[in-house]
């Protein structure tokens, strides 16, 4: 039993804010994140002398947090019987549409709908974009990732933005900003054109209630690099804050199709941008992308999509978790989330090496199964 407690303690590094909060067990049951020492179902499973691989997998996937004193916390439900199995693939397959996620007639709308020309966004462009703020070990705050609002309570981002090395290298995610445009401005963002001043509404800062990385996320391979952030309250919509649409589970990215990536990441000057930027990138052939990253011993799967590969044009450090977007095939006035910025080559914008994005259509079922009212 001690071995598994140590195992749980080693991997349970999600966020102290999840202690006592809601979570989902590996079998999809809604439960609470509590101390492993007070969860009878997990303790009973830990005491099983010869565990099956499925039982071990259930224990590993049950982790949800670690307390400040190092006590592992688990998502404590009814547990797993000796005949029950854990198939995480079911999280990404059959599902019933979740009414908490807006339909295509209620999402992806922006009042700014002009032809793309240049890299600076308008004040109300891509109103679903979010900025994740972290608290460093010295107490200072830092912006390090992005995300996309998908309903009043949830932001979709990359798993590597909310679990793993980011927690030790940067700090704990503590806050999400919505309606942001210029991160250097403490109040409303404004600019003047032809003598007329244009301003947006003041951004909304929402605290984080729960961090939910995909249960099969692998930090070493970046497989299943997708996660959800549940905010501590519902966010009101406006011209500057709107949810983006999700793709259909059957959606396939087309090679050569132009999509948009946006964020506050590093620019060609080597510094992060204060202003929200956008970039048009072509979807790259999957086989070609696989060959390119195969040189670096990285395998690209059909749950990932590659885009870019043009000199000086790429998503970059700080854009992680942000959106790769395109308009809906059925309605070019509304936008959907095609991918989530995952990783790329060490040097951003290297010609011939595209960026890699988590393919959102492959995770629509998981999102619908995970989001709660």
From TrEMBL:
Entries under SMART domains matching the protein: CLIP (SM00680), Tryp_SPc (SM00020)
A biological process (GO) of this protein is: proteolysis
Please report which protein family the annotation says this sequence is part of: Belongs to the peptidase S1 family. CLIP subfamily.
* Annotated localization: Secreted
Q: What is its EC number?
A: 3.4.21.-
Q: Does the keyword Membrane apply?
A: no
Q: Where does this chain mainly localize?
A: secreted
- Looking at the record, the residues that make up the Clip domain are 22-76
Query: Does Signal appear among the keywords?
Result: yes
State what protein this is by name. Answer: CLIP domain-containing serine protease
Q: What's one GO MF term for it?
A: serine-type endopeptidase activity
Ranked from the top, the taxonomy reads: Eukaryota, Metazoa, Ecdysozoa, Arthropoda, Hexapoda
* Location of the Peptidase S1 domain: 115-372
Could you give the domain comment from the record? The clip domain consists of 35-55 residues which are 'knitted' together usually by 3 conserved disulfide bonds forming a clip-like compact structure.
Sorted alphabetically, the keyword list is: Disulfide bond, Glycoprotein, Hydrolase, Protease, Secreted, Serine protease, Signal
Q: Which residues form the signal peptide?
A: 1-16
A cellular component term from Gene Ontology for this protein is: extracellular region
């Amino acid at each position: 039993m001690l071995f598994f407690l140590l195992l749980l303690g080693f991997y349970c590094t999600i966020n102290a804010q999840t202690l006592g909060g809601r979570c989902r067990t590996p079998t999809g049951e809604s439960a609470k994140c509590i101390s492993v020492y007070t969860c009878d179902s997990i303790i009973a499973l830990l005491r099983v002398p010869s565990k099956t691989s499925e039982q071990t997998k259930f224990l590993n996937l049950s982790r949800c947090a670690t307390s400040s004193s190092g006590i592992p916390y688990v998502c404590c439900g009814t547990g797993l019987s000796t005949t029950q199995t854990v198939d995480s693939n079911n999280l990404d397959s059959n599902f019933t549409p979740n009414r908490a996620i807006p339909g295509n007639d209620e999402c992806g709308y922006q009042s700014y709908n002009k032809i793309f020309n240049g890299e600076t966004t308008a004040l109300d462009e891509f109103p679903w974009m979010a900025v994740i703020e972290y608290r460093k070990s010295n107490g200072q705050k830092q912006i390090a990732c992005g995300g996309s609002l998908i309903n009043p309570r949830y932001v979709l981002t990359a798993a590597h933005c909310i679990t793993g090395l980011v927690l030790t290298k940067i700090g704990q995610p503590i806050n999400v900003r919505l309606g942001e445009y210029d991160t250097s401005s403490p109040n409303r963002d404004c600019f003047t054109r032809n003598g007329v001043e244009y301003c947006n509404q003041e951004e909304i800062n929402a605290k984080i209630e729960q961090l939910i990385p995909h249960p099969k996320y692998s930090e070493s391979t970046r497989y299943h690099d997708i996660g959800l952030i549940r905010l501590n309250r519902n966010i009101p919509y406006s011209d500057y804050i709107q949810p983006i649409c999700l793709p259909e589970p059957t959606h396939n990215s087309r090679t050569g199709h132009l999509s948009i990536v946006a964020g506050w990441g590093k620019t060609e000057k080597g510094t992060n941008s204060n202003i929200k930027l956008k970039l048009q990138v072509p979807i790259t052939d999957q086989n070609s992308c696989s060959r390119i990253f195969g040189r670096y011993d990285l395998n690209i799967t059909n749950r990932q999509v590659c885009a870019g590969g043009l000199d000086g044009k790429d998503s970059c450090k700080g854009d992680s978790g942000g959106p790769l977007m395109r308009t809906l095939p059925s309605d070019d006035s509304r936008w959907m989330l095609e991918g989530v910025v995952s990783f790329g080559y060490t040097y951003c914008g290297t010609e011939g090496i595209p960026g890699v994005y988590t393919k959102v259509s492959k995770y629509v079922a998981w999102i619908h199964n995970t989001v709660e009212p």
